[in-house]
Amino acid sequence: MKKLLNHILNILYPRCCPICQKILKDQSLLICPECGEKLKPISQPRCMCCGKPVKEEAEYCRDCTGRKREFFQGKGIYLYDSRMKVSVLRYKYEGRRQYGDFYARAMCMYGAGEIRRWKPDLIVPVPLHPRKKRMRGFNQAEYIADQVGSFFGIPVDSSLLRKVKDTRSQKKMNAAQRRKNLRDAFAAKGRADGKTILLIDDVYTTGNTIEAAAECLKKAGAARVCFLTVCTG
To answer: Which of 53, 82, 105, 214 has most Cβ atoms within 10 angstroms of its Cβ?
Structure first.
């Protein structure tokens, strides 16, 4: 019945490539072969803290150098270039949830080493404020987190961390403005004593969102907070 239902849905709402947005000729695929050949995950060298690409001789990126982070370590799978920016924006604002299937698969493939090394007890998606969630119809991070958790057999808790402050868009803000915008933006509902938590989000840029979420979780007792994102800016 599940296969039949998927077949009917593919006819009515055919799956599109998350990169070029063309209808996939083979509906069993998550990305078209042409884009799959061109799209490559970020390779080494990476920042030893946030996972951003760095120069060969560098251990840390400019943002992490000489700075104590609230999170232990993190990684973004793809570079947030023009192709991925269009893809992620369509996913978030046009409700193209099928793109999330591709993102989750990429995280499971290219983030497996880190997940096994970090050994998270719990996966927590970065939450949306209730107003934004109503507008979008879903939390894009939660959709990905559920699939990653299912693949690795790690429990997912979408209620532990809440977004209590309806923050303004940070696209045109500098680092100081972003930090101020995110102050007291998150609240923990319950305790996370002694747990290693893996945060899941779509994009990591300055790291202020992940930083604020990690700080909140550590105040709730988390021993260590790591993160995985689809892209890094």
So the answer is: 214
Q: Which two tokens stand for residue 43?
A: 């390779």
| 62 within 8 A of 105, measured Cβ to Cβ | no
**Separation of alpha carbons 103 and 30, rounded Å:** 9
Closest by Cα among 151, 70, 173 to 103:
151
Per residue in 40-66, pLDDT tens? 999 999 999 999 999 999 999 999 998
Rounded-to-integer distance, Cα 37 and Cα 215, Å: 38
Burial class, 40, CB count within 10 angstroms (exposed 0-12 / middle 13-18 / buried 19+): exposed
How many whole angstroms separate alpha carbon 65 and alpha carbon 67?
A: 5
Q: Which helix (H) or strand (E) holds 178?
A: helix 175-181
- Which residue has 């892209």 as its token pair? 231
